[in-house]
Write a structure and sequence with these properties.
Radius of gyration: 33 Å
Distance between the termini: 109 Å
Number of domains: 2
Order of helices and strands: HHHEEEEEEEEEEEHEE
Largest sheet: 8 strands, antiparallel, barrel
Number of helices: 4
Shape: globular
Mean pLDDT: 85
């Protein structure tokens, strides 16, 4: 009887061991599906750079042709033309950045990324509740014609530069025929008359076109402002 009990012990121990052991590769069905698949998928990053354009509503004109270029170097060019009223669009240039879904131009929240493009924000950086069109959409191209720019012009040590209001950087000015004629020469002469202590700036409004030409130093190309017309010297010598 005692021997039979001894022989039965290994069998009993084996049964206990098999009941208390779970294969490491086996998981309960509810554990396999506890995390939704869409939670673990990374979200695609928003691509902000590119060209955006649309004609937005205007209170006293057929519309405002709005064209915004967001460049990879964090600079932007914005053109806004009041149709049947402006001969050339009003331009703004400077730096852009984002925070969340909002787009800041020269430090001010002006747009937010929506499902169909960039939606304009109100003056406080909040959404605009309107049934009217309020979005500029991505486009492949819209050209780069002349625009009105306001900023600081400096001529010093045979170097011409223009710093648009709101921008942190000055852009070189391209002169016509080495400064022998054209609106660029008129601007240079006006600077000599008005500014007594170069390189102090002269605040002006100009019609200008952005162009690309050979770099001043080294190989490659740089972007220049070509002065098409000196519109006026600002009475108050500062950015509005």
């Amino acid at each position: 009887m005692f021997m039979k009990t001894i022989h039965a012990l290994p069998v009993i121990l084996l049964l206990f061991a098999s009941c208390g052991t779970e294969h490491p590769e086996e998981k309960h069905p509810e554990e396999q599906h506890s995390v939704p698949a869409d939670v673990i998928k990374p979200k695609a990053a928003i691509v902000w750079t590119g060209l955006y354009s649309e004609t937005l509503p205007c209170a006293d004109c057929p519309g405002i042709l709005t064209q915004l270029e967001l460049r990879a170097d964090s600079t932007f060019v914005l053109r806004e033309k009041y149709l049947e009223r402006d001969s050339v669009p009003n331009g703004r240039m400077g730096q852009w950045r984002t925070k969340g879904m909002k787009l800041f131009l020269n430090g001010k929240a002006e747009w937010t990324m929506g499902p169909k493009g960039l939606e304009r924000l109100d003056i406080h950086g909040g959404p605009i509740d309107t049934p009217l069109p309020n979005t500029i959409h991505r486009v492949k191209t819209f050209g780069s014609g002349p625009m009105l720019l306001t900023g600081a012009y400096v001529y010093y040590a045979d170097s011409h530069s223009f710093k648009p209001c709101g921008s942190a950087y000055a852009i070189p000015v391209a002169m016509d025929v080495a400064g022998e004629k054209g609106a660029g020469l008129e601007l240079e002469r006006t600077y000599h008359k008005k500014v007594k202590s170069p390189p102090a700036p002269l605040y002006v409004q100009v019609t200008a076109t952005m162009r690309v030409g050979p770099a001043m130093e080294g190989d490659g190309q740089d972007e220049y402002i070509h002065i098409d017309k000196l519109e006026k010297v600002l009475v108050k010598q500062e950015c509005p």
